[in-house]
Amino acid sequence: MRGLSTIACLLIACGIGFSVARQSTPTISQQGPAAASAQPADAQRVRAEIRAVENVLPKIPDRGAALFLLARQYAHLGELQKALVLLKECVALDAGFDPEPAESPSLRVLTSNTEFRSMLERVRRRYPPVHKARVAFTVPAMDLFPEGLAVDTEKKLFYMGSMHRKKIVKFALDGSVSDFVKQDVYDLMPIGGIHVDPADHSVWASTDAGEKHRPELLHFDAQGKLLERYASPGKTPYDLNDLVLRGSREIFTTDTEGNHVYRFDRASHRFTEMKLHRPVFYPNGITLSGNENLLFVADMLGIIRVDLLSDESEDVDPGAHNTLSGIDGLYWNKGEFLGVQYGTGAYRVMRWRLSPDGRKVTASQILEYRTRLVSDPTTGTVVGDNFYFIANTGIYNLEDDKIVDPSKLERVHIAVVALK
């Protein structure tokens, strides 16, 4: 669930993978032999990823997702004409993609191009702001840089992890806030996904690799005492991002940086990599259907549906004029998806109605878009007929676990949008 905080660090805004645009990239008019030879340090890796995406492009239903990802990759490499052609094709699909340079740093070099500016203006007219949410409550701390959000519906308590302070806080709807897991007690790495086990009110969490290169799956009792910790089986670069519990038997978790999805057996304490029908590209949000027989994994190319009874997988069809690209927090709710989406370029909170078999989107609705309540949002949680989400993580202001600009710190707002 690092959305624009990691992936988009990579593609859009902060720090894994791409190290977007720390160097100057030539404009289209400046491109030539010299510009072509001035490749970024990660060019070999990026080109390998481009080949992988181009290989699966003819096989996936969410074509716009692949085009938008490729456009940003080519822009990162300085191949701006290719990037522009891909963007034009992507935007022409009318699926909601928004090449806003403020949200996609790798595209900023295109702002001097007349075609790009015209395309951007058309997108802004086509997709105006949508404001349906409100601030439900505010967490006073200004340096948490939160990621995961979960709720214990029975106790009416919310839990939120901190990437910077490496702790978990809990708070209630009345605004009371306290530490659930204090900083420095268990030598934790940055906290990512969080999930409450309704059976015993215990809390599971996943962590980034952090400075000690130690991503883990963590289990705390209802009082915040560490019960279990399990190291990721992956190799650097890796992390454990979001997670979902399937009863008392197993946990599924995403490794965004390593491009893996794991099943964790709670009895044997073993991780097993999921075998899917295609490679995953920065897997993030993850959820289960109501009967827990279907697993859904979000990555930059859409959402993969996994039948846990047969182990067969396929891409969910977003339908015409729609996309499931890049979803951070992903949640199943009464036959629909709720999600915090970053893969379209600009953040938005979405809902997608599904066919009964979960194979296709039949309708979609933007719940929040182009407002202050989607300022680096990450995850959320469903409470009754309301969807709560972290509105402003501030994660863009944290680099290598250091605060970039203290003057931009602000309290964390938890927003809510009614689903009825």
Task: Tell me the layout of helices and strands.
Layout: H1 3-11, H2 33-37, H3 43-56, H4 63-77, H5 80-92, H6 114-126, E1 130-131, E2 134-139, E3 146-152, E4 157-162, E5 168-172, E6 177-181, E7 191-197, E8 202-207, E9 216-220, E10 226-231, E11 243-246, E12 250-255, E13 260-265, E14 270-273, E15 286-288, E16 294-299, E17 302-307, E18 312-315, E19 327-333, E20 336-341, E21 348-354, E22 361-369, E23 380-383, E24 386-390, E25 398-399, E26 402-403, E27 412-418
Antiparallel strand pairs: 1-22, 2-27, 3-4, 4-5, 5-6, 7-8, 8-9, 9-10, 11-12, 12-13, 13-14, 15-16, 16-17, 17-18, 19-20, 20-21, 21-22, 23-24, 24-27, 25-26
Helix pairs in contact: 3-4, 4-5
What does this structure look like?
- The chain is an alpha+beta fold.
- 16% of the residues lie in helices and 34% in strands.
- It has six helices and 27 strands.
- It has helices spanning 3-11, 33-37, 43-56, 63-77, 80-92, 114-126; strands at residues 130-131, 134-139, 146-152, 157-162, 168-172, 177-181, 191-197, 202-207, 216-220, 226-231, 243-246, 250-255, 260-265, 270-273, 286-288, 294-299, 302-307, 312-315, 327-333, 336-341, 348-354, 361-369, 380-383, 386-390, 398-399, 402-403, 412-418.
- The strands form seven sheets. A five-stranded antiparallel beta sheet has the order 1-22-21-20-19, with no helix packed on it. Strands 2-27-24-23 form a four-stranded antiparallel beta sheet, with no helix packed on it.
- A hairpin with a 5-residue loop joins strand 9 and strand 10.
- Helix 4 packs antiparallel against helix 5.
- The longest helix has 15 residues, at 63-77.
- The radius of gyration is 20 Å and the shape is globular.
- It starts with a helix and ends with a strand.
